[in-house]
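PROTEIN SPECIFICATION:
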Amino acid sequence: SAPWAANEIDETGVLYNGGTRYTATTDGRRNDCFERLFITVSPRYEEMLPVIANPPSPWKHITGTRLWRAHGAGQRDRDIRHWRDIRRWGLSEVIVTDHETGWRDGGESFTFRTRTAPKKGGDEGQFQYARVMQDELGFVYGPYNNYTDFAPVNEFWTPDLISRTPDNQLQAAWMRCYAPKPSRAVEYCARLAPIIEEKFHFSTAYCDVHTAVAPWHRVDYDARVPGAGSFAAVFYLYGEIMLLQKQAWGGPVYSEGNHHAFYSGLTDGNYGQDQAYRPAENPWLVDFDLRRMHDLGCNFGMGNLEMFYARRDPDLSTRLLQDAWIDRFLAATVAFGHPGFLVAEGGFHNTLRSYYMLQQLHSRYCLSNAAEIRYVDERGGLLETSAAVATGAYRRSQVVTRYQDGTVTVANGHPQERLRAEVFGRAVDLPPNGYAGWHAETGIEVWSADPDGHRGDYASTPAYLYVDGRGRMLRFEQAAGNGPGICRRLPGGDHEVLLYQGADCGFAVAAVDAVALDRDGKPMGPAALRRSRGYTYVVPVEGAFSYTLRGGKVEAGLALRCDRSEVIPGERVVVHGVAEHPWQAPPTAR
């Protein structure tokens, strides 16, 4: 070969700039072959993004409206108690998949199986567990499976099912496992998945690993198979496995992610992770995710916490530090337009926060496409992506997105600086790791911010009100509280109030009376209500788990006011009613 002259034009009119000319011979005749480089040039960043030529997921109405959680199957009785407790707290819109332990008790095979772990109740136990998860609790629920790891102790084992390396050795996979031939894996998926579904009646499944590896990592070099030595064969066969899974479950299929861009739409969702990039530390440039993957499927969370923080072992010993790490995880989930991941780490208050702060918001933006993406610069300007990349403003990780349905999200991924900007007519001021979102037509308002200099959380939605003052009384438009509190909207104008660990929370709802409920939802007797500054509070009843508030017209009472909403211990204030009532806060008050 010899270099082709720069800027020289060949006989077809193609301009070559630093390309290469190759000489080949066929039947003794010389032929010149040219390596042509096609380069797209545009001043707009989004026009450079590669197109993913897959069909969109048909299950976004499921994957985009629910939070996701993998659960390592243990003792089924204990698992049922756990998920009943989750549901009792009002966490209804959840997708749950078992992890591989549902198929095995020890080190035996966990893939290519149709019989579940004997010590976890076997097939009958699995069937009854699925009935509780789906029929009683209303979750979208399904099993673990994959067609990338194959153990020699499996009933279908034969070396002829295993991919070959270039030197004709068996290709290794996960520990104790080898990599099945993709050409045979698709056959077994078509054979086994319908058997599993007929036995257990699942509504989703987690198909592990397939999108965690690039197609070229699982190439089969066995000359006997079609497409030997090509990663295209792996891609098409893995994609076919995902289509077969949807068909089998009659619901969405998920996979592990990291290389999931190739499979977006073929999978309905994945862990929304990119561990090699380390998004917890590096700038949030969201356009490829929001303009290409988002429209095809719903990748949840930022993966899980370990994936987002790339399996670092952070010191989460203090609640303040732990809150900051959870806040950053949730802010990134909003910035990248993902549905939520149900957080269990660090305490149940984090589970409540991860659900109630995001569920209603992502149910809007996951079902719409991004109309405008902006990056906030140091002066509060909202820059289009091209300008943000050219100036480096995107490195601030301060992201604003307006979706086609009118949903707006704002996320501040800067670790030190505040986000202050005018965002589509609203003044926004968010601390590091803060986020907000709203949809005017439905009245959704979500704010994780620091009013009065103290971090707190607030969500006002058609389904519920949520507030968490994180140890200090914070007041928002529709709720106030010093800890996690939920007010679920029930049919007919009633509400259910749940207060976590004795939190004092009030909600801007009209209620004429209240009934205390136990953990099983059975009435315990009446509960008193008190009203202050437009909020309705329930006076706690010992042993109560929640309270049903009956809606109705509240008789107007005597209006009281005080110029102060907070006092310091020992401070003297005056409450104004018909007369003036001086009052002094006790010196020992919190």
Q: What stands out?
A: The chain is about 20% helix and 25% strand. The two ends are 82 Å apart (CA to CA). Residues 1-10, 12-19, 22-26 have pLDDT under 50 and may be disordered. The first strand starts at residue 2 and ends at 3.
